[in-house]
Design a protein that fits this description.
Length: 389
Amino acid sequence: MSKSLLFIPGPVTVAESVLAATAQPMIDHRGPEFKALLERIARRLRPVFGTRTADVLLLGASGTGGLEAAVGNLFGEGDRLLACPIGVFGERLVAIARTFGCEVDVLETPWGSAVDAAALRAKLGAARDGYTGVLLTHNETSTGAQNDMAALAGALRGHDALVVVDSVSGLAASEFRMDEWGFDVVVAASQKALACPPGLAMVAVGPRAWDRMGTAHGGPRFYFDLRKAREFAALGQTPWTPPVSIAFGLDAALDAFEQDGAGAVHERHARYARAIRAAAEALGLEVYSRDGAHSPTVVAIRVPAGIDGDAIRASLRTSRGVIIGGGQKELKGKIIRIGTMGDLTQTDVVGALGALEIALLEAGYSLHPGTGMQAALKVFLEADQPAAV
């Protein structure tokens, strides 16, 4: 089977060491070996979330399952929430909250932009009776945009609303400080920046969130009952049968993350994204996200007028073995999305950009071959230069 280069926003290419870990023999998920594994993963994830006070729980689910758990355990009928979507997945959070009967006000932000902290502060200040909760997106893969979470945290100070953050595609790719920023529940998933196969949602739950759950707030839940998950975590177990193989893989992925170091991992994602944006601009293509809001994990690029982005994707897949993402909802066919997460090298990035140039040429777009690749190489070469002394 020929290898494809996977540049979608997740699942991502997984390193051989992580794949090998998932092939280990099964163990008793109620036994001491799994207890040690679960406790080790939770302990190692705390600095990734930037917390010393939160419990980190593993749920057998996708990131969306983790978000449903976060919202459903905290909020329900009669709760008024403020949501701040910047794309499709932020809108999904709104839909989840409304499913649980919450009244949701929306702070609108143009797609491709980040939430304006001043606008958030003003919206909170203008709310006559305040909000029970605020729903934020750290990183939005549908538009290639990322919020300045420190700035949003500043806008939230002085308000009692519980804050739920979707960091599914952001955590581990950039710095995150859950405790310092005052966030109450943060959700991530195994198949994104930590480069593990899908199957585990990681939910960090802070003290204020536990206090609210202790007073029986939230909607009906069974499988996604976070209080039950916490009770079992204290025993070194999960309430329901966990994806043991994915837990093995996540443990190995954390080995790699710690070996490289958080700073180096963050810089790698940012560097790959800078290289892809530089290539797009050199080719005369428009990066969809706005300055100051660029995601380090996904670059969204407008396709030229008269060219179908989905046709470009199909050409890359069938002819070059390069798999990239497309636009969603009103952006379908209008943008392509190139991810930076997973077991990818600089050579992989340059190769994918070369394949993109060929696909654009074949679609009738006029460009000078190699222009995008050279721009990306310049970014990589500059990053590799030793610092001046």
